[in-house]
């Protein structure tokens, strides 16, 4: 009998692995609805859906290994990163999914102010680091042409084998949105791999906006991570991203 492995678990959802099957348990059926619809529409490799019995969605494991993990250097080759960039480009050039996006400039601006105020009050980072990242983050708050984005394109969600993308997982945040957001989330904490990613992605990427999303994402996610048992101050994670960004002119 296969062991049951807890991949991730917090108050909103949990993912378990049993052999080659992943069981995603989510109290909000809308997340699974989006995931199933997005995987059907995305022109990139995605996991096979085995069955769905709310609140559980069962999907098959994809072959290969993740590009890396946050907080550790990626051992994937430059060619693998370029292949990931090409896959993201195919997604961004696909027709928009027929539901609305959650990335709204006004809402993001309000969230940025709220989370920066919390970080300052809590004293978890020097005020100057927060101030500098707030300044950088505002560059992302500009009009963008919506594209089909993954919406949670963490480095652990892209699998490769022999320098080819074999699967992209966790599509519950997919929606129309800013292309630079996906590129930023995939390279968060891995700035040194941005050139490789963009080699495959091709023209049109805005490095200043990608950098802005690194700051915006790290500022706005930190409180949620702390409150759900994660450590944004682990080496190479969100606080290190903010310190690095804040040290740049």
Helix percentage: 40-55%
Taken in chain order, the helices and strands follow as EEEHEEEHHHEEEEHHHH
Cα-to-Cα separation, first versus last residue = 55 Å
CATH architecture: Alpha-Beta Complex
CATH fold description? Aminoglycoside 3'-phosphotransferase, Chain: A, domain 2
* Rough outline: globular
Give a quick account of the main beta sheet: strands, pairing sense, barrel closure. Answer: 5 strands, antiparallel
Please compute the radius of gyration using only Cα atoms: 18 Å
Q: How many domain modules? A: 1
What is the structural class? alpha+beta
In CATH, what is the class? Alpha Beta
Q: Kindly estimate the percentage of residues that lie in beta strands according to DSSP.
A: 15-25%
> What's the CATH superfamily, by name?
Aminoglycoside phosphotransferase (APH), C-terminal lobe
- How many H/I helical runs? 8
Strand order of the largest sheet: 1-2-3-5-4
The count of strands amounts to: 10
What is the secondary structure topology, with strand pairs?
Layout: E1 4-9, E2 13-18, E3 21-26, H1 29-41, E4 49-53, E5 56-60, E6 65-66, H2 78-92, H3 105-122, H4 127-137, E7 147-149, E8 158-161, E9 164-168, E10 175-177, H5 179-187, H6 194-201, H7 207-227, H8 238-246
Antiparallel strand pairs: 1-2, 2-3, 3-5, 4-5, 6-8, 7-10, 8-9
């Amino acid at each position: 009998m296969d062991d049951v492995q807890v991949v991730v678990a917090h108050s909103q959802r949990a993912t378990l692995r049993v052999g080659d099957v992943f069981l995603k348990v989510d109290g909000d059926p809308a997340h699974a609805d989006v995931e199933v619809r997005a995987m059907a529409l995305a022109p990139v490799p995605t996991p096979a859906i085995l069955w769905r019995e709310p609140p559980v969605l069962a999907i098959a494991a994809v072959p290969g290994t993740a590009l890396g993990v946050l907080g550790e250097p990626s051992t994937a080759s430059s060619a693998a990163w370029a292949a990931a960039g090409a896959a993201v480009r195919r997604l961004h050039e696909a027709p928009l999914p027929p539901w609305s996006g959650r990335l709204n400039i006004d809402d993001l601006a309000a969230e940025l102010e709220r989370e920066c105020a919390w970080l300052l009050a809590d004293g978890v980072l020097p005020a100057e680091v927060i101030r500098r990242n707030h300044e950088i983050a505002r560059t992302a708050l500009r009009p963008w042409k919506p594209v089909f984005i993954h919406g949670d394109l963490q480095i652990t969600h892209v699998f490769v084998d022999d320098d080819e993308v074999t699967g992209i997982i966790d599509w519950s945040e997919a929606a129309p949105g800013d292309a630079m957001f996906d590129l930023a989330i995939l390279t968060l904490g891995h700035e040194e791999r941005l050139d490789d990613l963009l080699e495959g992605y091709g023209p049109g990427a805005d490095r200043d906006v990608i950098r802005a999303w690194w700051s915006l994402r790290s500022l706005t996610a930190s409180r949620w991570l702390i409150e759900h048992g994660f450590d944004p101050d682990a080496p190479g994670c969100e606080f290190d991203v903010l310190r690095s960004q804040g040290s740049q002119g």
